[in-house]
């Protein structure tokens, strides 16, 4: 259609339409960026939980290899979040060169090193501000590991007994894992 002077009306996109399209595109891009951040955070939380489970299983296997000193593994808390560290054992133990008590001290020290991510052999980084607790009742062993996470996460209705009070008011960032195992007499 021609106007008064014989020129055709504008048929392209106007400045307002371009501005609206850029606004819609930027809102969508921000949503995708937020989704990427959430996915990265959840991936890290899953990796931490997997590491905690592997560390608990490692300790169970150490205890199965040394069943005579089972009671000496009990501890109310080791790890960086406790503020104290276990002293390094006087000697490196193997099953044949140390007593069961010395082996248990060696195992606990190595386990704490792995929790903190300071293990000499193949460290995968450890957990964020970990606390590890071990309870032994007869032959039933409970290993509980707590660490700082983005959000609190534990089994519904189960209060975490390990690391209580370490991770802030209301334990808003405490993640925890509790595993039980029966250790035979060997």
Plain-language structure description:
This protein is α+β, with helices and mostly antiparallel strands and 186 residues long. The mean pLDDT is 84. The chain has one domain (15-182). The protein has helices spanning 15-65, 100-116; strands spanning 75-78, 131-137, 140-148, 174-182. 37% of the residues lie in helices and 16% in strands. The radius of gyration is 28 Å and the shape is rod-shaped. Strand 2 and strand 3 (140-148) form a beta hairpin. Strands 1-2-3-4 form a four-stranded antiparallel sheet, covered by helices on one side.
How are the elements arranged and paired?
Layout: H1 15-65, E1 75-78, H2 100-116, E2 131-137, E3 140-148, E4 174-182
Antiparallel strand pairs: 1-2, 2-3, 3-4
Helix pairs in contact: 1-2
